[in-house]
Amino acid sequence: MDLDDKIHKKSSSEGWKERIFVPTVIAGVVGGATGLVSKYRKICGLANISTTYAANFAIVTGCYCGAREFVRASRASEPGDLINSAVGGFGCGALLGRLQERYKKSWPYSKA
């Protein structure tokens, strides 16, 4: 690899907005919209349930995208590699399952 290749090579942090930030924002919007049509909106209130759904969708998506990018940087692979998505999804599920440890149903899914 000569000097020109090193200069023109993209760093791993380029494009993070398209790979992490944009999907997280979109997931928050979709979560809010899901809260609008949720059957619990009458019980919990429309604003509360929409906010809860939006936050949960955004947290899960942000965790998944971050884990996928961590795996991509560790493996030094391209952004569209399917293995990155699989390992990132497994890691994200294990982490979020571990955070919900107080619920017995999540315990089998968090064993990593």
Automatic annotation (TrEMBL):
It is found in: Membrane. This is Uncharacterized protein. InterPro entries: TIM22. The keyword DNA-binding does not apply. The chain crosses the membrane at residues 20-38. Signal peptide: none annotated. One of its GO terms (cellular component) is TIM22 mitochondrial import inner membrane insertion complex. GO terms for biological process: protein insertion into mitochondrial inner membrane. It is a multi-pass membrane protein. Keywords: Membrane, Transmembrane, Transmembrane helix.
